[in-house]
Here is the input.
Amino acid sequence: MARSTGTRAQIVDAANRLFYEQGFEHTSFAAIAEAVGISRGNFYHHFKTKDEILNAVIEARLQSTRDMLVDWDRDEQDPAERVRRFVEIVIANGADIQSYGCPAGTLTNELAKLGHPSRLQAVAVFDLFRTWLRGQFEELGFAIEADDFAMHVLAFSQGVATLSNAFHDSAFVQREVDRLHDWLGERLADSRR
Amino acid sequence: MARSTGTRAQIVDAANRLFYEQGFEHTSFAAIAEAVGISRGNFYHHFKTKDEILNAVIEARLQSTRDMLVDWDRDEQDPAERVRRFVEIVIANGADIQSYGCPAGTLTNELAKLGHPSRLQAVAVFDLFRTWLRGQFEELGFAIEADDFAMHVLAFSQGVATLSNAFHDSAFVQREVDRLHDWLGERLADSRR
DNA sequence: GTCTATATCGGGATAGAC
DNA sequence: GTCTATCCCGATATAGAC
Here is the structure.
């Protein structure tokens, strides 16, 4: 594991934010260096190539996602509530999503268009959510449908994020959240029959 | 209206394809010129800036979308079938979507991250589909819910496209299509009660 | 570990000949 | 309308002093 010196961690933080807001390719070393407050030259002491920064950023996103999911598991006992908490992300992060879309979805797509080797690492962020959601649905007794349901909830989040970014319509986001909550309620009602 | 000389149309076609496959910013003049088979210098006889090409590409997409929707209106009388036809796009264009995502969604997001002035023009492609879908739902008697339903169907398409691009899983796409068909069937059944 | 200076390259954009 | 040649700039990346 790489040691996180203060400067290195600051670079990853700034790059993480800038890659999200401006896109990976459009974000220059100069922009990151300026955000951190160091010179461009110093930069290369910590990261030799732009791809190295990208990998560090993705790794940071993976870790913060893991941490968040562990928190959710600890703070909420009911798997259905946990799923609802995930669904509500599109509201909690509504402002950022309106401006920049979903961090995972937009980075994954950009790397796909670039034919970038780190694409699969970016997809791994989705895998974390997918596996976690699947686990919640399994706990709820949906042994067969768990992965299908997990992907459906993920698809919901991506659809909402993309259109929220396009139309800047938070009422639409709320309606879709309500609709997915209804959908979840119906599945739970079905399973109790 | 700009005259479409052969060369100009070829440039727009090539740029349209490359912007989709590689992204707007990552596509260089050299790449477009090479795809068309002309020199870079000749390029500027037709378009003075990259933004001009972008606008021409968006305009071309708007026009081809309008044409497609007119065709659908003419070829299919049942509004429910028309909506189903839209839903099936994610299968018909499955290969491209797996590789590059949705043309409208990915361009809109890229322009959002770039803070590009043509972002709203890109959103206009979504508006065409939204208005058209709303019209179908209105014809089906959903006076109040028409726009909500239209946005829901659009969100479906974006969610499926993003995850299809991430996971390359066509079985997932088919499941989501089936799910939306079911959803539409339920709405139609409700309205007949 | 941080800096300045610099090399190198590619991309957008222009000038002008044919 | 098409070409070649060129300018200019910003971006990645390196070298080497402090």
User: Anything to note?
Assistant: Residues 28-30, 40-41, 43-44, 48-50 of chain B lie near DNA strand C (CB under 10 Å from a C1').
